Amino acid sequence: MDSIKMAFESVMDKKIRSFLTMLGIIIGVSAVLILVSVVQGYNADLTAYYEKQGVNKVNVSMVSYDRTNTTDQSSEFMDWVTETLSDQITGVTPNYSTSATLKHYANTSDTATLYFGNEQWSACNNYTLDEGRDLLELDMDNRSLVCVIGSYVADALFGFQDPVGETLMVNGTPLTVVGVYYQKDGGAEESMDDAVVVPYTLNRQMLDTDTFTDYTIKVTLSTSMTAVINSVTDWMEEHIDSNTGTYTVENGNDAMEAAEDETASLQVVLGGVAAIALLVGGIGIMNIMLVTVTERTREIGIKKAVGAQRWVIISQFLVESTVLSGCGGVIGIILGYSGSLILGKLIYDMILLPAFWMALAAFLFSLVIGVGFGMYPAVKASGLQPVDALRAD
Fold first, then answer.
1. Which of 212, 47, 54, 205 shows the shortest CA–CA distance to 122?
2. Helix, strand, or coil here: 191?
3. Burial zone of 329 (CB within 10 Å; 0-12 exposed, 13-18 middle, 19+ buried)
4. pLDDT digits (tens, 9 = 90+) for 282-295
């Protein structure tokens, strides 16, 4: 306890020098906590984005040519998926999108995304109905001029008016709004809520094309993803001649998993960079402790002359260097938590707090830095000869 008390007195006796010595530790600890927390926030934001889009999706693209014309295999493929994989999937839908200009009386918008899908489109893309009804199989058969809109479109073009039953001009085509989806992406412009979904069978009228090449299959369980992908690939190999067509079958979860791996690597790199600051701080502590040994040479000589053992001298200087680094670690943790909160709100609009184990690890590491870099000065101090130490000015 006496050593700790003396260490604090020594630190407080030279406040400015002690603070400058701790600065490297403070910067290192706070940087580690802030950078790792920000990357965690980025990862959480990215994961939330993919979850909003819907997980466990298989994305299929196929093009088959019959001489010079593209063959439409939409119905055949989707019927096969529905019948054969019904116990493994939630739904299957064409997957095509384009930009849209919307108009309702004087209100207009040119930021919306127009999607062509079937009655299973919302289930495949993680949309939930709020008002009215969803697209129906009958709408596909009858090529009904109807649409379901996102919450942003409903708010921006209809305001407080009930959109259901109203007519919406979509790229010049009058469509009847039959439903509105719940807000799922903040209800902002150019978000997932800025969307209009129409029957895919309107492709000829609105896109001037007869065929679709892209599809989305929503798999019920992640454990079934591989089996579904293998089954779809087998169907493609059987129905798509490589001489007259091509296809791709992709695991929609791969993008999210790749992003998670990328952010994990980024977290390690940024944490490593911040850890370098801790090492630099440790060098600063060793340097100042060497200066302290020089300043207190006579004190060391007196202690050794009255019989102080080497371990007493070593422990005294080790405790002082550990107190320096420990205080720097505590200040760094406080700044790290504060910085994480501020940046979390500014960048991601979420509360970001470093995990307790991370803060504890940073503090313990700062203590290790203090012990490690304080050892050489402590050993040097304990090795001074009493006679030489007492002669020092």
1. 54
2. coil
3. buried
4. 777 777 777 776 66
> Two tokens at 92?
């299957």
Render the burial of 339-371: b for 16+ CB within 10 Å, e for the rest: bbbebbeeebeeebebeeebbeebbebbbebbb
Q: Whole-model pTM?
A: 0.65
150-174 pLDDT tens trace: 999 999 999 989 999 999 999 999 9
* Residues 6+ positions from 114 with CB-CB distance below 8 Å: 97, 98, 99, 100, 170, 171, 195, 196, 198, 206
* CA 229/CA 223 separation, integer angstroms: 11
Spacing of C-alpha 261 from chain mean position: 10
Report the DSSP pairing between strands 57-66 and 69-70: antiparallel
Compute CA distances 226 → 88, 108, 186, 256, 377, whole Å.
11, 44, 33, 16, 61
Q: What type of residue sits at position 3?
A: S
Q: Are 99 and 114 in contact (CB under 8 A)?
A: yes
Beta partners for residue 147, in sequence order: 177
